[in-house]
Design a protein that fits this description.
The protein has one domain (9-148): Jelly Rolls. 17% of the residues lie in helices and 41% in strands. The chain has helices spanning 17-21, 25-28, 67-71, 137-148, and strands at residues 9-12, 36-42, 51-61, 74-80, 83-88, 91-95, 98-109, 112-122. Strands 1, 2, 3, 4, 5, 6, 7 and 8 form an 8-stranded antiparallel β-sheet that branches. The longest helix has 12 residues, at 137-148. The chain is globular. The mean pLDDT is 83.
Amino acid sequence: MIRYAPAMQVFDGERDQKQIAALPHTVFFPCDRRDLVVCFYLPWSIKAAQIEGAAVAIRLITRFNTEAKCAGTPTRTTRLGSTTFVVLSPIVFRSSGHASRDDIYRTLRDEGCWEIVVRLNTMDGDTLANGIRPDQEGALALLERVRSTFRFVR
């Protein structure tokens, strides 16, 4: 279960592959069909803040079937509902004048490693290398609010 903003587009990992493939290339990675359960895409284009899109992706990585493979190198842990997730160091990608930042959260369950990726994309390749700018914090805060509502239900 997850709550998301009305402005977000929701893509099912199995049914919506054509729509996912049409997303801007900087958003595509966390919403790639491999391992994807669902992707919540925020189609923002805020030129003043250099934001060109953002997403929260929920993935199930069955090949990461042990605690060590799932956890990677965590920096800390956080709880979502009754589940503890490890938090990996943010990953920043830069290419052709664009930058993407991924905040990654993982937990091991019976089915495999559940991963939540929070991605913020900018039109300025140098922006995210030095951290989030004040005018980008609102977009990241919205993504974090969505992520924080994730719960496993039976």
